[in-house]
Amino acid sequence: MEQFFQQLLNGLAVGGIYALIALGYTMVYGVMKLINFAHGDIFTIGAYLGLTLLVSCNIAAVLPPTAAVLVIFLMVALLAALVGYLLERVAYRPLRNAGRLSAVVSALGASIFLQNGVMLIYGARFYVYPDFLRPDFTVHLLGLAVPGVRLLIIFASVVLMVALSAFIQRTRTGAAIRAVAVDPGAAQLMGINVDRIISLVFLIGPGLGGAAGLMVGIYYGQIDFTMGWSYGLKALTAAILGGIGNIPGAMLGGLMLGIIEALAAGYVSMAWKDAIAFLVLIFILIIRPTGILGERTAEKL
Amino acid sequence: MCVLARLCTIFLLTLLPLTVAAGEFKIGLMCPLTGKWASEGQDMKNIVSLLVEKANASGGVGGNTISLVVEDDAGDPRTAALAAQKLASSGVLAVIGTYGSAVTEASQNILDEAELVQIGTGSTSVRLTEKGLQRFFRTCPRDDAQGSYAGAALVKGGYKAVALLHDNSSYAKGLAEETRSALNTAGVKVVFYDALTPGERDYTAILTKLKAAKPDIIFFTGYYPETGMLLRQKKEMGWNDVAMMGGDASNHQDLVKIAGPEASVGYFFISPPLPQDMDTSEAKAFLEAYKSKYKTVPVSVWAILAGDAFKAIEGALASGAHTPDAIAAWLKQLKGMPGLSGTLGFDAKGDRVGEFYRVYMVDDKGDFVLQPK
């Protein structure tokens, strides 16, 4: 039983990060019906930006660690949002009226471009975050010794997800985003500036992705230019599992995927954990083709 | 008429690369300059170009200069096949490379059909030299040699319950299997045998399961990034009483950077020695030249083995072997040539002969310390 709870917590921490990245995929898909393949690379950029800011600005010397982490967190989210905005302007907006396939190809191209760009700027070797930033305390929970940073990761992911939900559901801008997702043409007729909403979506999604990159950097320490690929693939799976285009679905899908992986690794076979996770995805898609929380709409694939 | 002239030009242009300019030997280097092993590949390129420059500066080989043709294989079998095709049509005599057994394997037949010599450098999978290819060699040892050495080291260490972990790559899996059979023969119990997914960040689920198997040593046969994460998260779990051991793919300075010096103290691995730990004059001279040009020391032993491959080819050219078949014949009789990682020599299959595995341990400063034999 102790091992079960341990694996559950392992899975929740991984799942929280999947969920944060999955939000970026699902928001863009909801509004533009486009899988933004470059999202995983924005996650990588977030991790590298965080390290660059930490080392170059020397914030940690001026502020206490907790405040330093918060400041860096905000800066990285803003900068990653900016990268996302530029990506949309350069790679997607010129193709807005072209076929959907052209945009997908453009997304793949942007992903390769960003990944190799990071490699050319930072080099191919691994970078490691400084250790002192990592909150180093242990919480005793149900007889388990849980590293505190693990709980903080879960907590931070949940806070960001709840804040995003409140923004989408409770504010006028959130309503506008939902309107564009349902029908861009009608939204435009209602006086919503569709271009601005799309830009906004490309600020929020990448901002969250960048923040997730920073969290991975601080927690796991090791970053490299290919890290966005595996995290991006898992997050996309999570988004589809929960119902792509649906924000609570992305969160649920991310957490579920993390837990399934951890339990599969713990109780079946480590080598097969990805296969089992994808098997669960296939079963869920057979029963509910739109994902767990996906709506049944004709125009969504 | 115009079309005909253009066709002729194209025809001549395609012929051009095949004609080797007089007084020049072309050598190909295939290495992962991009992709997940870019760090190793860039080291390979640095080292071989350094040796080529040195050879040319001292008058070349018998008055002929050597030119190096570098192709990127991105650490990916498909790209490697393309790279091999490009090299095969670029007029090289021999190809050095590459890193990764599966990647090397994708290029083997292409280069063999082009009748070129290939010297693998980070290609340890046993079957690569079991195919009867007459012009394939390797400067790295085979997995079975490493597996039996690892098994012997574990037995010598007095371990009773060994956990074997690999990453499903053909290299790490091969090493894990060889070690398992060596341990079974010696009567040591393997309490855990499974694979992790490389490239991930979170291995706590795996470590939790490993801990439940109660091993007294963990032997992870994969690469240094995952090793580093395992060490780091193992310490974070507060699981400090069981040591970890690694194979030669963990011989990379970044290991300690990733794991943190505290978590890596006492970690040990088996590997061919790095030039900084060798006391031969070849290794010392090379290290000086490398330091003065690149202002750092080579971080991966695999890149050194690419340097050895070049030394072997250079030796063949100097002896008057100027065709791929002559080079291959010369290499097969080679014994005891001083190389960067020890003496160079090949057997009839093309495998490197000689024992050069050693045990390294990480000390409390985070340095890799060569253990006495």
How would you describe the overall organization of this protein?
The complex is a heterodimer of chains A (301) and B (373). Chain A has 301 residues and is mainly α. Chain A has a domain at 24-226. Chain A is built from twelve helices and four strands, in the order H-H-H-H-H-E-E-E-H-H-H-H-E-H-H-H. Chain A has helices spanning 2-32, 39-57, 59-62, 65-92, 100-122, 148-170, 172-182, 184-189, 194-220, 227-242, 247-267, 273-287, and strands spanning 127-128, 138-141, 144-147, 222-223. In chain A, strands 1-4 form a two-stranded antiparallel sheet. In chain A, a hairpin with a 2-residue loop joins strand 2 (138-141) and strand 3. Chain A starts with a helix and ends in a 14-residue tail after the last helix. The model of chain A has no long low-confidence stretch (mean pLDDT 87). Chain B is of the alpha/beta class. Chain B folds into two domains: 16-141 and 279-344, Response regulator (Rossmann fold, 3-Layer(aba) Sandwich), CATH 3.40.50.2300; 144-271, Rossmann fold, CATH 3.40.50. Helices cover 44% and strands 17% of the residues of chain B. Chain B is built from 13 helices and 14 strands. Chain B has helices at 2-15, 38-57, 77-88, 101-113, 143-156, 170-186, 204-212, 224-236, 254-259, 261-264, 281-294, 301-318, 324-332; strands spanning 24-31, 65-72, 94-96, 117-120, 136-138, 161-166, 189-195, 217-220, 243-246, 268-271, 337-339, 342-344, 358-362, 368-370. In chain B, the strands form three sheets. Chain B has a seven-stranded mixed sheet, covered by helices on one side. A five-stranded parallel sheet of chain B has the order 2-1-3-4-5, sandwiched between helices. In chain B, helix 4 (101-113) links the parallel strand 3 and strand 4. The longest helix of chain B has 20 residues, at 38-57. Chain B is globular.
